[in-house]
Specification:
Layout lengths: L5 E8 L2 E8 L11 H5 L14 H10 L8 E4 L6 H8 L3 E6 L4 H11 L6 E4 L12 E7 L7 H12 E11 L5 H10 L3 E8 L9 E9 L3
Parallel strand pairs: 3-4, 3-6, 4-5, 6-7
Antiparallel strand pairs: 1-2, 7-9, 8-9
Length: 219
């Protein structure tokens, strides 16, 4: 990809191999057209979307055996979109979303790389309306609560894009804002459960990760 150093790596998810093109490191920044400034993304956070994170791998493993039949699914803040690729291969009704200008291009390339049909994609910021996005039965995401304002933004986004009966699954590497997010989801009527994940490959946060599940109503 012009202006970027990329690598292609193999990830074994649910016993199947996926070829993923990603940025070679977290220092990649190339923005000759000013997309970063227009999107409000700093040069420091610009590369985050294009890295395969340990929590993303954990979520993809969870999706490889999840009972998704009949569900309309959204991966929010998809980044490189590994979970969306897994769900697409297994025949799920999956839409991927992110606000990063390059996310769709990387996702399309990786779909082609794995001989998969194109994944439905929507550019969607958490703040503000996304009228074309619609509502979903299941929303999944990984490592989304890394800034102080994210619990409020994400919970408000979910309120706009979940059905009355809905399931939300988030893989988190141990960020300190999870409690605040869980409280906001309880106000919205969700019950909460979680299981611990050992994400020792993530140097940016505690190795004690968690897979959080929020359920509201019957589905």
């Amino acid at each position: 990809m012009p202006g970027y150093s990329v690598v292609t790596s193999t990830y074994c998810i649910g016993g199947e191999d996926y070829q993923i093109r990603s940025l070679s490191d977290r220092r990649q920044f190339w923005d000759p057209d000013g997309q970063a400034e227009r999107s409000g993304i700093s040069s420091a956070t610009w590369p985050i979307f294009g890295v395969v994170w340990p929590a993303g791998i954990a979520l993809a493993q969870e999706m490889s055996h999840f009972a998704f039949a009949g569900l309309k699914i959204l991966e929010v803040g998809c980044g490189i979109g590994l979970s969306s690729l897994v769900l697409q291969r297994h025949g799920a009704d999956i839409t991927a979303s992110d606000y990063h200008p390059l996310a769709e291009e990387f996702l399309r390339f990786n779909s082609d790389l794995n001989d998969l049909p194109p994944i439905k994609f929507q550019h969607a910021a958490w703040a503000g309306a996304n009228p074309r996005l619609g509502r979903f039965d299941l929303i999944v995401g990984s490592d989304l609560l890394y800034e102080r304002g994210h619990p409020a933004l994400l919970s408000a986004f979910l309120a706009c894009h979940t059905e009355a009966a809905a399931h939300v699954i988030l893989a988190d590497p141990g960020r300190k804002h999870c409690g605040q997010f869980s409280s906001k989801m309880a106000i919205e009527g969700y019950s909460h459960s979680q299981q611990r994940l050992d994400l020792t490959g993530d140097r940016s946060a505690s190795p004690r990760g968690r897979m959080m599940s929020f359920v509201r109503g019957e589905r």
